[in-house]
Design goal:
Oligomer: heterodimer
Number of helices of chain A: 16
Strand content of chain A: under 5%
Order of helices and strands of chain B: HHHHEEHHHHHHHHH
Shape of chain B: globular
Largest sheet of chain B: 2 strands, antiparallel
Strand content of chain B: under 5%
Structural class of chain B: mainly alpha
Strand order of the largest sheet of chain A: 1-2
Largest interface: A-B, 60 and 72 residues
Helix content of chain B: over 70%
Distance between the termini of chain A: 4 Å
Largest sheet of chain A: 2 strands, antiparallel
Distance between the termini of chain B: 15 Å
Number of helices of chain B: 13
Structural class of chain A: mainly alpha
Strand order of the largest sheet of chain B: 1-2
Chain lengths: 349, 332
């Protein structure tokens, strides 16, 4: 994305920069005013619960995600699950995996752990790196700014999928794969957050209350922590909320290609990589992970949209206006959002 | 106009510098990793003699900056490899030799490039038509059922990873309904008709995922323009709705669409990798996944650089086009 555009966007997303305790409550009120976002929040909360309770749920079923059940697949027919509907039974609620006979329900709920865990970790790394580099560039002298901004430009120019693929090749396979995938996504795709953080800090640092803090003799570090970070929260959270579903897609894609999360650790993308051969004998082996991915990414995207609307002062004021002009008036922030979502998806802009 | 030419020139210079810096970073990341670089480069299946040979070829005794210089030299003027008895010339742009097949990386890439270009360029035409068309339709039918339906569909498109779209399309269209044969690549020069038929499903797959973003963006920027005062003035003068939508509102959407399309190029290449692997198309993406799996570093590094080159180029071209579409940028 052109630099001017990023800067304009980031500046536009800024919410009232005055820090205060009412921020969180106001945000929640504005989020609650959007029905779709609330449904999405409920779905996301359920998914997180499933991910956290994965060991509990599988214990309830009496299965685990890694045990092979060779007796449940028909080796004469290439490993098709025995029984109707891909081997669904009281013991195996969603059937078993073709060839290995591993329990599908267990792999699906543990897959939620991997999917959400990798995406959230990656987002945390992206936010941390982006904010540190962006704020340092904005507060540093000319040379620091030049250097950090150029590095950010290069990071932004790297195609995420390609770089992630390539980096996964050189790290020894002994390194825990889900953590590795999360770190790689985080380290390759923080560029846009860096640009947003820099642009917003440049705006904030000219404001009176920051100047007042500087005149009172506060250190740069203290100003950054106490005065600038609260003002950065709105644009950074907005963008980060859009990065989470993007990161889920990336992890699924890498695992689908066979280079991301590897067996025996289950991952939705990885389950799909061999599903096309089995769709006739065990359609749920294709449908379940695909549906899980779809619902998760959809819910997180809608939630991200809701978070953006809640944090955007222009859009939020319109939440209370009658419905007639709403779609037209809301559109302004959606133009930026369209580019943001897209940039978030690729991690480059 | 001189301001514009200057802008274009500055943008070109910065693109070259970005590419150079990208090559440094990629080289350092891949060839200065801790551990036995020769062993990693050569791959896990290499014999000790091969590892020794690789270490010599990589000139591991030289300092890193000299090795990078050597690599850069190969790209600009090419160089010669001595493979035991004979000497093989690798002409510029030389990206090294594959350790798996002993082929020149440049040659491997050139062989695979037509497949990937066919996929990405064809897909791009389709997603622009589909995305912008859907966006215009939504903006035109705003507030009606059509808009709501299209908004829902595009949201679903945004939320579905491209390989899931491809997987489902392949199973339904090729497997169950047998409307299309399973995709395969036939060179355009051999048979243009087969080329198009074989790539139709991959194009549609790539386009469906991307078009959703363009539809959302087009709709949003058109609605924004439609809410502006000058449109009201046009209406007051009796300009028809068709002309307002087709000429004035669409013009406002042009600049963001160009910006997104550039930005999108990197994502599209990533999507192309997935689609090539899914449909078994012998393009750069499939080769890259293969090279990653067998840890063939010269191929990986070469491909990342070439793809990076295209992405940087696309971004530079888009920035210039953006400036043409929206003249205020030049002044900024």
């Amino acid at each position: 994305m052109s630099e001017a555009l990023v800067a304009a966007e980031a500046a536009g997303t800024g919410v009232d920069p005055v820090p205060g305790g009412s921020g969180a409550r106001q945000f929640w009120r504005r989020l609650r005013a959007q029905r779709a976002a609330m449904v999405a929040t409920a779905v996301v909360a359920l998914l997180v619960l499933v991910a956290l309770a994965a060991p509990l749920l599988t214990a309830l079923e009496g299965q685990d995600p890694t045990t092979y059940h060779p007796s449940l697949v028909d080796s004469a027919r290439g490993g098709v699950p025995i029984g109707s509907f891909g081997g669904i039974s009281g013991d195996h609620w969603l059937g078993v995996e073709p060839q290995t006979g591993r329990d599908l329900f267990a792999r699906l709920v543990y897959g939620a752990r991997v999917s959400l865990g990798v995406a959230l970790t990656a987002t945390a790394v992206q936010v941390f790196l982006g904010v540190v580099v962006g704020v340092a560039a904005a507060l540093g002298n000319r040379w620091v700014d030049q250097l950090l901004s150029r590095i950010t430009d290069i990071i932004v120019a790297m195609p995420l999928m390609i770089m992630a693929l390539a980096l996964l090749a050189i790290v020894p396979s002994s390194f825990p794969r889900p953590i590795l995938v999360a770190l790689i996504i985080g380290f390759v795709a923080w560029g846009t957050i860096g640009k947003i953080a820099r642009a917003q800090t440049l705006t904030l640092k000219e404001l009176d209350y920051v100047a007042a803090a500087r005149l009172s003799g506060w250190s740069t570090w203290r100003i950054a922590r106490r005065e600038l970070l609260p003002g950065l929260a709105a644009p950074v959270i907005t963008y980060a909320a859009l990065m989470v579903p993007a990161n889920i897609s990336i992890e699924a894609s890498l695992s689908f290609l066979g280079v991301g999360v590897k067996p025996p650790t289950p991952s939705w993308g990885q389950m799909l990589s061999s599903a096309d051969i089995w769709y006739q004998a065990a359609p749920q082996y294709l449908l379940l992970p695909a549906a899980a991915l779809f619902v998760t990414v959809l819910a997180l995207t809608v939630l991200g949209d809701g978070v953006r609307t809640a944090l955007d002062p222009r859009a939020a004021s319109r939440l209370r206006i009658g419905t007639g002009r709403r779609s037209e008036a809301k559109a302004g922030s959606e133009v930026k959002a369209g580019i943001e979502v897209k940039a978030a998806k690729e991690g480059t802009s | 106009m001189s301001g514009f030419a200057g802008f274009a020139l500055r943008r070109a210079v910065s693109a070259v510098l970005t590419l150079l810096a990208l090559s440094v970073i990629i080289y350092v990341v891949f060839y200065a990793t801790p551990g036995n670089v020769a062993q990693i480069t050569c791959g896990p299946r290499c014999s000790p003699e091969q590892v020794h040979q690789v270490a010599q070829q990589l000139r591991l005794d030289d300092p890193l900056y000299l090795r990078y210089w050597h690599f850069l030299q190969g790209i600009v003027v090419g160089h010669d490899y001595s493979t035991g008895t004979s000497v093989e010339h690798c002409s510029a742009p030389c990206l090294g030799l594959s350790y798996q097949s002993d082929q020149q990386v440049t040659q491997i890439i050139l062989n695979k490039l037509p497949v990937s270009l066919s996929l990405v360029v064809g897909g791009m035409v389709l997603w622009l038509l589909l995305g912008v068309g859907t966006g215009v339709l939504s903006a035109w039918r705003r507030g009606r059922f059509t808009e709501r339906a299209l908004t829902g569909i595009t949201l679903a498109g945004v939320a579905t990873p491209v390989f899931v779209i491809g997987l489902v399309l392949m199973i339904v269209v090729c497997g169950q309904l047998e409307l299309l044969p399973f995709p395969e690549y036939v060179a355009f020069s051999d048979d243009p008709e087969q080329w198009a038929w074989g790539l139709l499903l991959p194009w549609v797959t790539l386009a469906l995922g991307e078009a959703a973003y363009f539809a959302r963006l087009t709709r949003a920027s058109m609605l924004e323009t439609l809410a502006e005062d000058h449109i009201r003035t046009f209406r007051a003068y009796g300009v028809g709705e068709r002309s307002i939508i087709g000429r004035h509102a669409l013009r406002g959407a042009l600049a963001p669409i160009i910006a997104l399309n550039a930005n999108d190029f990197g994502a599209a290449v990533g999507g192309a990798v997935l689609i090539e692997s899914l449909f078994g198309l012998p393009g750069i993406g499939q080769e890259l996944v293969h090279a990653v799996n067998v840890v063939d570093l010269p191929v990986v590094v070469g491909m990342v650089l070439v793809i990076g080159f295209f992405v940087v180029l696309a971004n530079a071209v888009a920035d210039v086009l953006y400036a043409v579409a929206d003249r205020r940028v030049v002044l900024a």
